Amino acid sequence: MNLGSSAKRGQVPHLAPFVMEKASIEIDGNRILNDISLRIEAGDFVAILGENGSGKTTLLRSLVGLLPLTLGSLTVYGQPIEHFSQWSSIAYVPQRLMAQTAVPVSVEEAVMAARISPSRRFTRDVHLRGATQAALETVGLWSRRNDRLDTLSGGQQRRVMVARALACEASTLILDEPTAGIDADSELRMADTLADLHSAGKTIILVTHDLGPITDMANHVIVVGGKGTNSVLYDGPAPPPREIYDHVWHHHDDEPDPRGTNPSGLVSGP
User: What's the predicted TM-score (pTM) here?
Assistant: First the structure.
C-alpha cells in the first residue's frame, strides 16, 4: 500500500495538523476541558492519556469539529476549523465498534463504503478496489474480505475500522482507544500497523490507557485531567514524568455522543 499517497490529495504536509489556543469546552453547561493550548505537528505520533472522565474523548471530538469550542481557537492545517474543507485528509476512528445493520455486509464492502461519495455512489472503479485491498492487507484482513463483518472478533472489527480510514487515504488518523477490549495478539498487530503508518509519514493521534507497545511508539504525549485552570497536566516528549502516571487510569467515554453512533463507525471530518 502506498501509505504516503494522501499528500497527492491536496494536503499541505508541512503545516501543523492541529493548533489549539486557550480552548475550553462545555457540554450541557458543564466545563469538561479548560484553557488548553497545544500544537500537533505533521508526522507526530501523539498519545493522549488521562484518568476516567478527564476529557480525552472530548478533546478528540473537538479536533474533528464534532464538539464546538466554548472559548478559544482551533486551526486545522493552518485554517480556522470553521473554514477547513479538506476533511478527506483526516480520519477519525471512534471507540465504539461499527453498529450492526439489518443488511449483512462483508468486510470488503464495509471498507469500500468509506470511499463511496454521492458523486461516485454507483461506481466501483479500479482505484477504489485497489485502495480497499491495500488497506485490508495493511491490517492483515484481506483473507477475510468475503466474511461477514459481524462474524469477526472485536479486535478484528477495530482493524476493519482502521482499514476504512486507510482506504480514505487520510494523512492524519485519530483513534479513540484502538486496543480497547482486544487480546494481546490483536494489540501487537494493531501496534505493528500503526508503527508502519507512522514510518510512512502519517500523523497518528490516539487515546489509550495502555502504557505498553502503542504508547511506547509515541514521540509526543498529552496528559489531560487537571482540575484547576488548565486541563493539560503534561504536553511534551515521551515518556511523561513518572508522577504523571498516577493520572493515567482506564479510559471510558467522557460523555455521550450527542449525535448518536454513526452507522459507519467512522467519521471522516464533520
Answer: 0.79
